[in-house]
Design goal:
By secondary structure, the protein is of the alpha+beta class. The chain contains nine helices and 13 strands.
Length: 354
């Protein structure tokens, strides 16, 4: 199309068709297309028929109610379905029943809240399009007042206050959905209750040598030696062996009674045999190094050092507490037995934790 073919009224002011042709360029007006404006607003059936509006309200309320029921089903599935149970679901195949139930019910609960909100917005809230001219970023008092007025209009047009059935079921669905996450907290494990304060030791439990698996007598422990023991009845093939020994592991040392400085330690010993927890009170490492001349034991992890002749108090290193002592004695057969459990919790930083 040549410049001669362009209507002269479409050329910039002051430039004729001949001028445009002479310069080899074509210019058009700044606004070549007229603003078509917004199409006429078409009312929805819900805007003119209250019965249709009530039907939409019931649909939204039904979706929110289904969400509540799905959340309840989620919690019931979590409690009732065994974690190892599997089911066949076509065409997926065999899957874990608990995972399938939890995923299905939680998905339905969340989907129904979203679908209900979308249906509410599309059928009952105002659908009038409003054109707003651009304005500077900073808000003038008039703009702030308009925003607040628009918010009030939006709240009114959403019919949130009028549609009580929708409002109440929405509150119910939103209140129940978070319970799904709360119930999942059970997977963190059972509450510890007083388990941290107790071990497998109790009155009358024999001290069994960890190496020979035989009950110990005082004569089996030589002066200056270090012996490790476990409670009678605890075996290495037990499923919870490591968990039990994590608190009940014991070390025995025989010290000349006149070299024991702590009064309670002497009372809780038998013929110079003292029993202390093997678990370091710093980060729970097993203590295994013993210095015969000083009666010191050393944790190999961070070099915390305890004096077994003076209540196993900390004399070096980061440990914050002395090792708990086990009160021991002998039974009628002469075997070493516990007189009670540890008088204080075993393990690292217990008192800082609770």
């Amino acid at each position: 199309m040549s410049s001669q073919d362009i209507p002269e009224e479409n050329l910039p002011a002051g430039q004729s068709t001949d001028d445009a042709a002479e310069h080899g360029s074509v210019a058009v007006k700044d606004e070549p297309f007229a603003d078509p404006g917004l199409p006429p607003h078409e009312h929805r059936i819900q805007d003119i028929d209250e019965r249709a509006a009530r039907r939409s309200e019931r649909v939204v309320a039904m979706l929110f109610t289904v969400s509540m029921l799905a959340t309840i089903a989620f919690i019931a599935s979590y409690v009732a379905i065994d974690v190892d149970k599997s089911i066949y679901v076509f065409p997926i195949g065999h899957i874990n029943a608990l995972n399938f139930a939890l995923g299905l019910t939680l998905g339905v609960a969340l989907f129904c809240i979203g679908a209900g909100a979308v249906h509410w917005a599309r059928t009952l809230m105002s659908d009038v399009e409003v054109a707003s001219e651009r304005h500077p970023i900073e808000a003038e008092p008039e703009v702030k007042a308009k925003v607040l007025a628009d918010f009030a209009d939006g709240a009114r047009e959403s019919q949130f206050g009028r549609r009580k059935l929708i409002r109440n079921t929405l509150f119910g669905a939103l209140a129940l959905v978070p319970l799904s996450g709360v119930v999942l907290l059970r997977d963190l494990g059972p509450l510890p209750e007083t388990k941290l304060r107790h071990t497998a030791w109790k009155k009358g439990k024999k001290l069994v040598n960890m190496n020979t698996n035989e009950p110990l007598r005082a004569s089996d422990i030589a002066v200056g030696s270090l012996t490790f023991a476990k409670p009678e009845g605890v075996e290495e093939h037990d499923e919870d062996f490591q968990q039990v020994m994590g608190k009940a592991a014991l070390m025995l040392v025989r010290i000349q009674p006149q070299n024991i400085k702590d009064k309670q330690e002497l009372e809780w010993s038998h013929e110079g045999v003292v029993a202390y927890s093997k678990i370091c009170t710093h980060v729970g490492c097993p203590i295994s190094l013993y210095e015969q001349q000083t009666h010191h034991v050393l944790c190999p992890c961070h070099q915390s050092t305890f004096d077994l002749s003076d209540g196993a108090r900390v004399i070096f290193g980061p440990a914050g507490h002395a090792l708990p002592q086990l009160h021991i004695g002998v039974d009628d057969e002469g075997f070493l037995v516990a007189q009670s459990d540890f008088a204080e919790p075993v393990g690292p930083a217990f008192w800082e934790r609770g």
